[in-house]
């Protein structure tokens, strides 16, 4: 199922170990296809049109929650809020709480599920995890679970599944994902000092996720903002050697304003933003390599946060 990049095929041939995260990134096009199939088979467990929904998660899973909430509301399926699981307002009335968690062991997610009276659905990577058993309904993605601490394919497969469930035709995104696993990187991983990622609407979640990938995999200085917020302060750090990387629609004039600071402006303009996220994941891993870091052993991180 995993389609290797030619670089990884070469590494393997000469006996150099390929990081798990590289393989997981490369397998996303295949995983997205499986996620689309799963969307039709799990429609009765996912939020129904008209329901008032809260989506919760931590880290990467929270950022996918943010993206999905914006997409669902924009598609007219109903009011949808996204929360870091630790910030879930237990007193609010929701028809359904949707938890996203790869491990199914994250303490804040389990705690939030324990406080709500709403029907609960969990999208989980590990079918034998506590969250998979605790939720009223579970949608299981073991095919997208990962060895890596740093999440890539579970997150994007979850979002593709949810987009397919909203009725989006995600075939083009999947084709573009196959291009994105091979596309040239838009920035020099060894020669870029800082990146600010921008998004608007649902792609704000992707911007946060891209920035988190850079921090997690490579201890690289990265920030993320809604694109219209960028002029309200963050542009002060734009400079030569730094970059602004936008997902989705770009506000009029922004590319020129960034260029005037000497920073590089990155925007594919033609790919589905979720396919663009794959390029950002690859950039994060390439920065780790340029810094001599092992992206499979990110500093201070564990696969999930389990609090005693
Ligand atoms: C959530 C998460 C990861 C993050 C870190 C700790 O995990 O925050 O996104 O990379 O390693 O856990 P999960 O609830 O989706 O399993």
What's the arrangement of secondary structure elements?
Elements lengths: L5 H8 L6 H7 L1 H14 L11 E5 L2 H15 L5 E5 L11 E6 L5 H9 L3 E6 L5 H5 L2 E4 L12 H13 L5 H10 L13 E6 L3 H16 L3 E5 L15 E5 L7 H8 L2 E3 L6 H18 L18
Parallel strand pairs: 1-2, 1-3, 3-4, 4-5, 6-7, 6-8, 8-9
The structure holds 1-O-phosphono-beta-D-fructopyranose.
Description:
The structure is a single chain. By secondary structure, this protein is α/β, with parallel strands linked by helices. It has helices at residues 6-13, 20-26, 28-41, 60-74, 107-115, 130-134, 153-165, 171-180, 203-218, 254-261, 273-290; strands spanning 53-57, 80-84, 96-101, 119-124, 137-140, 194-199, 222-226, 242-246, 264-266. A five-stranded parallel β-sheet has the order 2-1-3-4-5, sandwiched between helices. α3 (28-41) runs antiparallel to α8 (171-180) and α9 runs parallel beside α11. It is globular. The N and C termini lie far apart (38 Å). The relative contact order is 0.15. The model has no long low-confidence stretch (mean pLDDT 95). It binds 1-O-phosphono-beta-D-fructopyranose. The site of 1-O-phosphono-beta-D-fructopyranose has 18 residues, from α4.
């Amino acid at each position: 199922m995993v389609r290797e990049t030619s670089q990884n095929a070469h590494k393997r041939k000469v006996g150099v170990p390929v990081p798990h995260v590289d393989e997981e990134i490369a397998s996303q096009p295949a995983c997205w296809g499986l996620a689309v199939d799963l969307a039709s088979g799990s429609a009765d467990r996912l939020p129904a049109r008209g329901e008032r929904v809260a989506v919760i998660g931590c880290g990467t899973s929270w950022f996918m929650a943010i993206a999905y909430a914006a997409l669902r509301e924009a598609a007219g399926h109903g009011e949808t809020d996204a929360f870091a699981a630790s910030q879930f307002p237990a007193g609010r009335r929701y028809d359904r709480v949707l938890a996203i968690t790869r491990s199914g062991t994250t303490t804040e997610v389990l705690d939030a599920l324990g406080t709500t009276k709403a029907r609960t659905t969990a999208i989980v990577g590990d079918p034998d995890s506590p969250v998979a058993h605790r939720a009223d309904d579970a949608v299981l993605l073991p095919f997208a679970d990962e060895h890596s601490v740093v999440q890539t394919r579970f997150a994007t497969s979850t979002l593709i599944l949810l987009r397919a469930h909203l009725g989006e035709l995600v075939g083009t995104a999947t084709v573009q994902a196959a291009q994105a696993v091979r596309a040239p990187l838009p920035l020099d991983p060894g020669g870029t000092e800082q990146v600010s990622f921008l998004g608007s609407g649902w792609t704000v979640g992707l911007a946060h996720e891209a920035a988190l990938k850079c921090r997690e995999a490579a201890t690289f200085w990265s920030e993320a903002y809604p694109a219209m917020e960028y002029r309200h302060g963050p542009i002060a750090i734009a400079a030569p050697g730094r970059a602004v990387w936008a997902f989705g629609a770009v506000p009029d004039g922004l590319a020129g304003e960034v260029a005037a600071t000497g920073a590089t402006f990155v925007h594919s303009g033609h790919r589905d933003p979720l396919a663009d996220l794959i390029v950002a994941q690859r950039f994060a891993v390439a920065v780790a390599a340029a810094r001599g870091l092992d992206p499979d052993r990110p500093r201070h991180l564990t696969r999930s946060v389990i609090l005693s």
